[in-house]
């Protein structure tokens, strides 16, 4: 019989020794024993084929699409309708701490976005913002301007930011107008890249593509919920940074998603790293993925899953499917040599890409969080992430 530490190590892609050592240190630190044994038992629930799980996602997607009135993104730029209304009913963030719009325009005037101005045949940033709207113009920067411009803008325009350049205002959800589609062609070579956000400006935006693939509306809607959790999280960190003497450098570090590049030091006690982005998207062999760590991204998805479950009470018997994924964010199994993730966003992304990529990294990061939570609780997880995200 496979030992508990080995079962979990197989899912995380780490050596059993790493988890055995972590268990020993965490047990001594917290007094909690048998954590890995119980977690392995929980993960041993009846196995499911990926195809069966994907069939359930297709059903969820269809129920959600019907509930939201089968939204046509091309018609929602002026009124986001049920799509945004429902997302905000499930997760309405408090006002955030964001760069003032006037300051943002001044920053853009200093580093004029030539491609964007040329496309709209505009001579002035201010005129373009007035014509197209703040959220649309700033959201478009990342898919219109080239990387060199973006790096220069970030490296230089953000250097002198002070707390006085920020203000309290509401998070904005924006479906871009159809006219942005042509501009966005390079950014959305893969259709599942059409939802994004700007933490420092409090903007969440969607490029209006046709919803014609199973899983599309579920992907868009859950991403909205995810960002409605993530943007306020970073806003609270901006507020915290405002009380320090190196505000601008802390804001830039948070926006870059910095993760220390040195190995975790040897210690007689447990040491966890905070990994504030999905490193597996960049390099699946990154050594930091194989050290004990927690990930705020996975926590935002955990919260988004609970928000999504709020639809259950609105849909009667059909709504039960939205509760089915609660507490499965960390759940995975090795079935016949294949790693199967039960994580909702892993399954949605696998479905949308038509199996081109079988996603598992959301589940793996959630499993690291779950290990920590089993010892010290979710409240302590969130507290320590916020305290140590920049260390």
Notes on the protein architecture:
There is one protein chain. The strands form four sheets. This protein has a three-stranded mixed beta sheet with strand order 3-5-4, sandwiched between helices. Strands 1-2 form a two-stranded antiparallel ribbon. The mean pLDDT is 94. It is globular, with a radius of gyration of 22 Å. The chain is 51% helix and 8% strand. The protein is mainly alpha-helical and 391 residues long.
Summary of the model, kept short:
The chain is mainly alpha-helical. It has helices at residues 4-12, 16-30, 35-42, 50-67, 81-90, 101-110, 114-119, 125-132, 134-144, 147-157, 180-183, 216-241, 247-256, 296-308, 320-323, 344-352, 361-376, 378-388, and strands at residues 96-99, 166-169, 172-175, 195-198, 203-206, 273-274, 293-294, 332-335, 338-341.
Walk me through the topology.
Elements lengths: L3 H9 L3 H15 L4 H8 L7 H18 L13 H10 L5 E4 L1 H10 L3 H6 L5 H8 L1 H11 L2 H11 L8 E4 L2 E4 L4 H4 L11 E4 L4 E4 L9 H26 L5 H10 L16 E2 L18 E2 L1 H13 L11 H4 L8 E4 L2 E4 L2 H9 L8 H16 L1 H11 L3
Parallel strand pairs: 3-5, 6-7
Antiparallel strand pairs: 1-2, 4-5, 8-9
Strand order of the largest sheet: 3-5-4
Distance between the termini: 40 Å
Spans of at least 5 consecutive residues whose pLDDT stays below 50 are: none
How many domain regions?
A: 2
Helix content: 40-55%
For this structure, the quaternary state is single chain
Spatial extent as radius of gyration: 22 Å
């Amino acid at each position: 019989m496979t030992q508990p530490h080995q079962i979990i190590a197989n899912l995380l892609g780490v050596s059993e020794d790493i988890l055995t050592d972590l268990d020993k240190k965490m047990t001594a630190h917290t007094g909690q024993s048998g954590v890995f044994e119980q977690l392995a038992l929980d993960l041993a629930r009846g196995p499911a084929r990926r195809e069966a799980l994907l069939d359930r996602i297709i059903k969820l997607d269809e129920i959600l699409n019907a509930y939201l009135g089968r939204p046509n993104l091309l018609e929602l730029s002026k009124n986001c309708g049920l799509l945004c209304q429902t997302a905000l009913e499930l997760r309405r963030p408090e006002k955030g701490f964001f760069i003032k719009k006037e300051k943002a325009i001044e920053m853009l005037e200093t580093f004029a976005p030539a491609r964007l101005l040329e496309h709209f045949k505009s001579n002035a940033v201010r005129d373009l913002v007035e014509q197209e709207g703040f959220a649309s113009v700033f959201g478009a920067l990342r898919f219109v301007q080239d990387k060199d411009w973006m790096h220069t803008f970030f490296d230089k325009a953000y250097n002198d930011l002070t707390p006085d350049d920020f203000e309290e205002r509401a998070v904005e959800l924006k479906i871009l107008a159809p006219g942005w589609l042509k501009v966005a062609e390079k950014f959305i070579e893969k259709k599942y890249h059409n939802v994004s956000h700007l933490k420092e400006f409090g903007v969440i935006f969607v490029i209006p593509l046709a919803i014609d693939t199973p899983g599309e509306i579920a992907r868009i809607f859950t991403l909205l919920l995810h960002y409605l959790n993530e943007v306020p999280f970073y806003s609270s960190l901006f507020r915290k940074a405002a009380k320090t003497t190196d505000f601008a450098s802390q804001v830039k570090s948070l926006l870059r998603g910095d993760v220390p590049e040195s190995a975790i030091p040897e210690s007689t006690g447990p040491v966890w790293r905070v990994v504030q982005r999905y490193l597996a998207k960049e390099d699946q062999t990154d050594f930091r993925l194989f050290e004990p760590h927690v990930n705020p991204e996975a926590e935002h998805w955990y919260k988004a899953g609970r928000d999504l479950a709020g639809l259950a009470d609105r849909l009667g018997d059909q709504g039960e499917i939205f509760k089915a994924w609660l507490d499965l964010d960390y759940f995975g199994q090795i079935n016949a040599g294949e790693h199967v993730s039960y994580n909702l966003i892993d399954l949605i992304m696998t479905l949308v890409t038509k199996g081109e990529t079988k996603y598992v990294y959301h589940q793996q990061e959630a499993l690291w969080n779950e290990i920590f939570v089993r010892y010290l609780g979710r409240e302590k997880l969130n507290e320590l992430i916020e305290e140590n995200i920049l260390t």
